Amino acid sequence: MWNTDMVGGQRMARSPKQRNEKLRAAIRECQWSYDACAAAVRAVAREDGQPLFSCDRSHVGHWVAGVKPSGSSARYLAEAISRRLGRVVRPTCLELLKSGSLESEVGGLDWRGHAPVIDLLTVGRADVERRAFGRTALYSLAALAVPLDSWQEIADRGRRAQGGGIAVGRGEIDAVRDMLTVFSTADERFGGGHARLAVVQYLLSDVADYLRGGFSSDGDRRAMFSAAAELTYLAGWKAFDTSLHGLAQRYYVQSLRLANEADDRALASFTLRAMAHQAVDLGHAQEALQLANSSLEWSKGRATPAATALFTILTARGHGATGDKVRTSAAITAAEASLAAASPDDEPAWIRTSGFTETSLASQAGQALRDLGDLPAAEAQLSRSIATRNTTAYRRTHALTLANLADVQCARGRLREATENWQHTLDAMTGVRSGRACTAVTNIRTRLSSFGPRLPAYARKLDQRAAAFLRAEAPAH
């Protein structure tokens, strides 16, 4: 069919749509029917919080025929194909969008495109300058294939690349570490939504200038790149906590690359386990397990006992999510043994800043056991975590652990106890800006709704309070 436009008052013929051969070839490579392709697109959209219930085989047929997808469908389609093929496929490569129209949203996941400082600036500027960027950047499973086999070549290249800008020494390194401490402390108390963009702005200004500066020694260069990697990790963690998962992943990738330039494998493993944490929370158990195992393997011989325990407990999360009871139990036991051998004064700054202790390990173990279905053991671990936590310094984590405990108690049929702990959860969340906290409160309402008219009065009061919390936290439009 020919399309027409009005030009100068005259209806002019426009050339017919051209079939999208690149998209057609990609769907064939995926070995998909149009129905299967539509189902994969819907799955990605659901993960992004935007279910496309109406997307079906006819939509795919129109896209192959040359109709451009509307809204976010082009990004969902490209990500679905990327996941199937195991490599990053951009919407522009499929001729779904014009070249350059979405570069910053799909960029930041390429290990070899530019120097890490350049890509960090690209992602950071898009985050600060484009309000919709964090909401539209998609989480990519294909981008989780970290090229660890190229680590040494990239690290050696970094040593040879010396900047010619400002002189950078111990004073600048200490300044970045002091700022990192301030931002991290506030993050634990007030949530990822508090001062998130302030962290990014500091990365874009002072830290980026330092990374491009001149260093008097390779030791100073590595120390600055490590500090920058930690701060970039924090930017990713804050985005993750704010439920901006595609954005978080981009910061995590840049943190890995900066740690690579510093030849700091243990720090890179710290970020890999954060990526595993994100993957398991999003329901990608196998990918989470692979990332957690990579963090252990890559840090072998370089990680302290507490760091090893942290990486090991994330393998327990992966095994729990995949239903492997034996390996889950073994990983928890191994993590506890590693942590028992730790000396706090000998641990790296990022272990101390993150507050990883027996309390944190118990929380992660409880979640692994919950996912495995061992609710009594999960309740014991979560209760232990709550009883030993510094609730002032780690308010957000305390609130989330309370929510997890209440969820387990509800599943075990003890609604009154669950309701009391959910009430404590809401108390602890006062003043905390966190997407994960909002998700936990949404789960409260979901759990309570399953009781229908049988819901007791004390639980109805909780439901009303949870609804009021979510209304207050809803973003303004």
Descriptive notes:
- Strand 1 (3-7) and strand 2 form a beta hairpin.
- With 477 residues, this protein is mainly α.
- It has 23 helices and four strands.
- Among the domains are: 19-101, no CATH class; 111-263, no CATH class.
- The protein has helices at residues 21-29, 34-47, 57-65, 73-85, 103-106, 116-129, 133-136, 151-160, 170-190, 196-211, 218-241, 245-261, 265-281, 285-299, 305-321, 325-340, 349-354, 358-372, 375-388, 395-411, 415-428, 435-449, 457-473, and strands at residues 3-7, 10-14, 167-168, 214-215.
Content-based structural category: mainly alpha
Assess the beta-strand content as a share of residues: under 5%
**How many runs of DSSP E, i.e. beta strands?**
4
Q: What general outline do the C-alpha atoms trace?
A: globular
Between the first and last Cα atoms, what is the distance in angstroms? Answer: 40 Å
Major sheet, described briefly? 2 strands, antiparallel
Low-confidence runs? 1-15, 102-106
- Biggest sheet strand order reads 1-2
SSE order, as H and E?
Answer: EEHHHHHHHHEHHEHHHHHHHHHHHHH
Radius of gyration: 24 Å
Number of helices: 23
Helix content: 55-70%
Mean pLDDT figure = 87
Keywords:
two-stranded parallel ribbon; mainly alpha; disordered N terminus; 477 residues
Task: Give a topology summary.
Blueprint: E1 3-7, E2 10-14, H1 21-29, H2 34-47, H3 57-65, H4 73-85, H5 103-106, H6 116-129, H7 133-136, H8 151-160, E3 167-168, H9 170-190, H10 196-211, E4 214-215, H11 218-241, H12 245-261, H13 265-281, H14 285-299, H15 305-321, H16 325-340, H17 349-354, H18 358-372, H19 375-388, H20 395-411, H21 415-428, H22 435-449, H23 457-473
Parallel strand pairs: 3-4
Antiparallel strand pairs: 1-2
Helix pairs in contact: 2-3, 2-4, 6-10, 6-12, 9-11, 10-11, 11-12, 11-13, 12-13, 13-14, 13-15, 14-15, 15-16, 15-18, 16-18, 18-19, 18-20, 19-20, 20-21, 20-22, 21-23, 22-23
